[in-house]
Amino acid sequence: MRHGSLLDVLTEVDAVLTAGNSYGQMDGGVDRAIAEYWPGVQRSVWTALADEHHGYLPVGSAAVVPTGGDPCRWLVTHPPCAC
Fold first, then answer.
1. What is the per-residue pLDDT across 10-67, written as a single tens digit (0 to 9) for each?
2. Please, which residues have CB within 8 angstroms of residue 22's CB and are 6 or more apart in sequence?
3. Could you tell me whether strands 74-77 and 63-66 are parallel, antiparallel, or unpaired per DSSP bridges?
4. Residue 30's Cα: distance from chain center in Å?
5. Which of these, 36, 37, 35, 30, lies nearest to 45 by C-alpha position?
6. Cβ contacts of residue 8 below 8 Å, gap of 6+?
7. CATH assignment of 6-77, given 3.40.220.10, 3.40.50.850, 3.40.50.300, 3.30.460.10?
């Protein structure tokens, strides 16, 4: 366990997992911080959801998108509930 910001450890990991929503909207909490850190990642999530899931990521599934960052090159978004 660490205290601090998730953004502080992004240089130490290959991927980050976020409990996003089924529509890929990254406008609050951790998702917002990630979207602000990697400005293009929101568009990547929407594109992946549109191309692979018809715009809606079902609960229990996940989408993996490139972040454009280094060394943390991947974002895994996964909706944990239908909310």
1. 889 999 999 989 999 999 999 999 999 999 999 999 999 999 999 999 999 999 999 9
2. 56, 57, 58, 59, 79, 82
3. antiparallel
4. 9
5. 35
6. none
7. 3.40.220.10
Q: Which of 56, 22, 21, 16 is nearest to 38 (CA)?
A: 16
CB atoms inside a 10 Å sphere around CB 57? 22
CB 14 within 8 A of CB 72: yes
DSSP 24-76: ----SHHHHHHHHHSTTHHHHHHHHHHHHHTT---TT--EEEE-S-SS--EEE
